[in-house]
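debug: dumping io for the single-chain case to check the tokenizer round-trip. Nothing else runs in this session.
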Amino acid sequence: IVIILAANVEGGVNNWKRAEDWSIERTSILNKKIYSKIHGYNLIIKDFTKKKKYSNEFRESWQKFDVIRSIMKDNEFKENTWFFYLDLYSLIMEPNMSIEELIFKNLNQKSFQTLSYFNPNKIKIDIPYLSFGNNDNSDNNNNNNHIDDNISLIISQDCYGFNLNSFLIKKSNWTNLFLDLIWEPIFYKKLIDINGYLNEERILEYYYSKQSWIRNGMLFLPNKMMNSLKKLLYNWKDRDFLVNMNGCKNKFNRNCWEEMEFYNKLSKNLRLSWFKKLF
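debug: decoded output
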């Protein structure tokens, strides 16, 4: 498993990076470094400085796909390597929980491959979902830890639909085709002009509804499992794995630095033994 962390978001292009911005970055990076070291994962910190090729409409938010594609081309990573993408404004609250334990253990009991359980945007698919491959194998179905070879993208949803602030993606032929399609400028421009889609989540929802091969490669997990939103879902009593402070920069009544500091201290406090809390 390789963790990809987006850092230096915009690189101070739109605004000067303040002391709070540097502090947020240090806290988030250290949080992922500690987690990676505990479990022996590779950590790749990618510079998300704003660049001209991402400046078309809202395409700067698509930079994550370009970064993932470039990393996967590295010969260091073999087929079937899983990559865990995380936004900067995320914090792992339970660092002792491995991804294998959190997600891949009993995956069949935790996950969904259709939107029947939760479909906030009322997505309609053009043809019924069809399962191709190992899902029909009775031996695999009896193994709750088995991951269908067709699955290459594991995401969650929030009240706005697909969420790509935290997701797992596997190096595979499916992923190569998917990344080429979603980055294709002709398709992108067409979707902007005809349907008005702007960000990567809505584009993915469109392809999910129209392309059966994309549906066949995706899996959904409950949001609280790997992407608890700060205000809506995160609950320290449930010991949620990760808190996401998505939107803290764009809301006038929120402060990213204060939120990051609060959850960083809370995470440390949750890991203290009851004895140490007395002193």
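debug: round-trip ok. The domain at 2-268 is CATH 3.90.550.10 (Spore Coat Polysaccharide Biosynthesis Protein SpsA; Chain A).
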